[in-house]
Amino acid sequence: MKKRLLRLLFLSGTLITMLTACEYDFNVPVPPTPKPPAGDTISYSQDIQPIFTTNCTGCHAGSIAPNLLTGQSYSALVPTYVIAGSPETSQLYIVCKPGGSMASHTPAADLNLIYRWIYAGAKND
């Protein structure tokens, strides 16, 4: 009887641990991106638009907002999805960074360019 009780307690404890433990920790903070150097220049047409053309226009080509096709993307993004000078509060950066809904579509180097472009004022050049 004692062995059964001990076994039952052990299995209950194991089951409770399994049900309350989580393999994934979704609250891991993402380290902040370092501030770009003063005078950092990113060209929208040469650095940012190619990211959208390569990674995003498969879905965001007019039927799903924002429209990221060449010639349409800048006006679709600024100021609705991009707050010039503030990447951390810009929806574009938020969805592309780790933990965001588009993170799997945004390579780290591209994310860095997007961050730097927004931080530098999100200019259309």
Give an overview in words.
The chain is built from 5 helices and no strands. It is an all-alpha fold. The longest helix is centred in the first third of the chain and has 19 residues, at about 1-20. Residues about 20-25 have low confidence and may be disordered.
- Taking all Cα atoms into account, the compactness measure Rg is 22 Å
In helices, the fraction of residues equals: 40-55%
Secondary-structure class: mainly alpha
Number of helices, counting only DSSP H or I runs of 4 residues or more: 5
> Could you give the count of β-strands?
0
What are the defining features of this structure?
single chain, about 120 residues, mainly alpha, 5 helices, about 45% helix
Topology, please?
Elements: H1 2-20, H2 44-55, H3 73-77, H4 91-96, H5 108-119
Helix pairs in contact: 2-5
In short:
With 125 residues, this protein is mainly alpha-helical.
